[in-house]
Amino acid sequence: MIKNYLKSQSKDITQLLSLTLGKNHAWLLANDDYQLNEAQTQTLNTLIKKREQGVPFAYLSGTKGFYHLDFKVTPDTLIPRPETELLIDITLDLFSNKTKPYHLLDLGTGSGIIAITLADKNPHWHITATDFSQKALAVAKQNAAITDNEVNFQQGSWFEAVSKQTFDLIISNPPYIEQDSSYLKNLTHEPKTALTSGKDGLDAIRLIINNAPEHLNKQGYLLLEHGFNQQQEITQLLEKYFSNIQIFNDYNSNQRAILAQFKP
Ligand code: GLN
Q1: Can you tell me the distance from the alpha carbon of 108 to that of 139, in angstroms, rounded to the nearest whole number?
Q2: In this predicted model, what pLDDT tens digit does every residue of 28-51 receive, in sequence order?
Q3: Which of 2, 43, 60, 136 is geometrically suited to a Cys-Cys bond with 32, CB 3.0 to 4.6 A?
Q4: pTM (2 decimals)?
């Protein structure tokens, strides 16, 4: 019976029950004498086991909310983090002319959250999203069906995907965790390529900063998510080609994003 499960100490049991039965929390409480059939019990037990082995809930449910939309996620894609919503807010605030057809690029789009959310927010923008992973791009393309507005997907590693194209804003939530960080012990189910980037975690960020000028229009912007302890180093890297550097904290008051304008 549902009430027996609700009493148990199992991790996320309510959410796992909801997932098994396709019912929300309120339904579970109102029907706590419902008896699970054999197939449902088996499904639930499998889910509980996977959760106990550390599989993130988002990979079991196959979806994760981000900003105002729900996205499909698979183990080929990073699970969207609430911190990344900061990049959306910054972008929406950046361009005061809401109807100008700016060209935006989301590098390393993963499940497509940044590109698709922005496309949905402003139909005037021309949005390109890239990833080196075909499997991630396949997920992002499916996710693009949640908006009526178009996203142009291109496969390739960082700027290799966009050859000579230029943009008004380049955005990226690249991998930025140090390769030997103990924090990675908690993230064993997500693609490593989406998480770590060299010894100091800055390999991808360095590559993006050094190559962005070739792909930015006059006075174009670069917007990056980064690790809580990387802001100073990134500022130094940016100072060579960029001005008007602005830094942003996430909801936990950690330094998390940086915006810079290509020096005219
Ligand atoms: N933000 C991720 C985390 O802290 C790290 C990888 C990324 O988003 N670029 O788990």
Answers
A1: 13
A2: 999 999 999 999 999 999 999 999
A3: 2
A4: 0.95
